[in-house]
Specification:
6 strands, alpha/beta, globular
Length: 232
Amino acid sequence: MDIINLSEAEPAWNWLHELTTAPEPLRWRHATTLEVGVPAWVPKPQSWRRMVAANRAATLLAPPSSLLVSHGPRMTMYGSLALAARFRARRHLAYAFNFTTLAMAPSTRRVMHSAFSRVDRFVVFSTMERRLYADFFDLDIASLRHAALERATTRRRPGPRPFVAGRLPLRHRQPGARRRQRFARAIVERLWDDAALNQRLAEQAQSFARLKCSEPSAVDYLEAYLKRAQTA
């Protein structure tokens, strides 16, 4: 299986290369914006770099069993559009799907919705982001997965299952579930209206991810994803 990483990281970086095991051999490749040269006179050079890197990744995704792993929302958008332009239906995993702000033009939001609707799985770092991005981009919330940010070092005491708005079956909901759901929706609406609060929350989420998103937890997630893909 070929795994193509699409990112804005150093060319030598290849995410979880040599750390992940799978039912079949894995061949890792990396398409990055840092390998793309753009003339100084070109407007929005970073957008051009992303587009060229995404097209290179789409070219590398020749075998039907290939998997595209895009890192970040922008690279996810360009990667999905590049695959659509080549009529290549390949599995696409969007990792570290985290926005620092959702302030954008309506046209940009429509393009992102079109691109993200073709992605198989998104990995976000909080349950709040699952609902936020699903509502904002009109995505199936089941496609957004909350990845654990660190491997547990101590055994947790058994307790009640946490509530996730709109997800638990009715028979599992505790008294007051509707009140908590309304409260969660109010938080989301305030985030959309309050740009400063949105920015502060995003900065805190990024800081927490840098401290807590350990490499072992990412390995665990990818290995589980690959196993599911083999049995699908």
